[in-house]
Design brief:
Spore Coat Polysaccharide Biosynthesis Protein SpsA, Chain A; 9-stranded mixed β-sheet
Length: 322
């Protein structure tokens, strides 16, 4: 790694695990960026394919600045934690190892942050969020900006719970505020069983203290990789562990917003109950690992319909909805 001495504002962060066959999408999209002053931070979460050799080849090409770090396999959340701690630029952009940035993505983020600073609003904002489209140009999600509206200043709880904005996004964080809001612990309930924590935990934590500028512009291309999706589906047990660990954090921290979208939270709690049943955990064991009284009450109240839902989808439908 050869990091230039000049002040660089942006790091593009990519976590990866055995994605040598897709990483070139990110790489070539970074080569096409109209704004060139950035670092590409790659956290390799224990890949066993040709990822290492591929990246070493790109480093030798010296077309962009690459900071490549290899670690033992621990899941995407551990790669994110490492990136949050090791990044040294002011802004951090996250992009998955099979997606692409639009050519003007980093330049757009730069201009938006400059505008926020120009109007004296920097202290209020922790992130800027752009839209995502698939490879055919279709918006990934179902929330459409009002016509001619360039941006919306809001937070996660308002946009997701009240406005039902469940779109895929590409986000550029103010790293200092990100670190302030998001602490990914190394040890937590089921930490030795999960390979991913839901990122909604992080967005909600940020939204409790800071605003997000949601811009009406596509900056990311989402690529659907069928093989990888089949791999995820085949590991259903791991998915239930991920669901329990992620939603324990999320529901403990956000049920005070229940009235903003009861259906959203009831759905999460039912999934939480079903995952516990699928893994063979007793309700008492699951209950004891919930931290807040509010979540414990909801868990007990929804336990009977949750078990009925498990029976219906497991025995009759033969498949869960998540």
């Amino acid at each position: 790694m050869n990091i230039p001495n000049k002040r660089i504002l942006f790091t593009v962060f990519t976590p990866t695990y055995n994605r040598a066959h897709t990483l070139q999408r990110v790489y070539h999209s970074l080569l096409r960026q109209t704004y060139k002053d950035f670092i590409w931070l790659i956290i390799d979460d224990g890949s066993t394919d040709k990822t290492h050799d591929l990246i070493k080849g790109w480093i030798s090409e010296n077309q962009i600045t690459i900071d490549y770090r290899y670690k033992a396999n621990g899941g995407k959340h551990t790669a994110m934690s490492m990136a949050f701690k090791t990044c040294h630029t002011k802004y951090l952009i996250g992009i998955d190892s099979d997606d692409e940035l639009r050519p003007d993505a980093i330049e757009t983020f730069k201009k938006v942050w400059e505008s926020i600073i120009h109007y004296g609003l920097e202290a209020q904002f922790a992130e800027v969020s752009g839209l995502t489209h698939d490879s055919t140009g279709k918006l990934v999600g179902d929330f459409y900006f009002p016509e001619a509206l360039e941006f919306i200043d809001s937070n996660w709880h308002e946009m997701v719970l009240k406005q039902h904005n469940n779109n895929e996004h590409i986000v550029c964080w103010d790293l200092k505020k990100l670190r302030e809001c998001v602490d990914i612990p190394e040890n937590f309930w089921l930490s030795n069983k999960v390979n991913m924590l839901g990122e909604g935990i992080f967005w909600a934590r940020i939204g409790r203290k800071y605003k997000t500028r949601y811009i009406n512009k596509g900056l990311r291309i989402y690529n659907y990789d069928a093989g990888e999706s089949l791999l995820r589906i085949s590991d259903k047990k791991k998915g239930h562990f991920n669901n329990l660990a992620s939603n324990r954090f999320f529901l403990d921290e956000n049920l005070d917003h229940f009235n903003n979208n009861p259906k959203y939270f009831i759905n999460l709690i039912l999934k939480y109950i079903i995952s516990g049943v699928e893994l063979g955990f007793s309700p008492l064991y699951v209950l004891r690992n919930i931290n807040t009284n509010r979540f414990k009450i909801f868990y007990v109240l929804l336990l009977p319909p949750g078990i009925l839902a498990w029976f219906y989808f497991k025995k009759i439908k033969k498949n869960f909805w998540f």
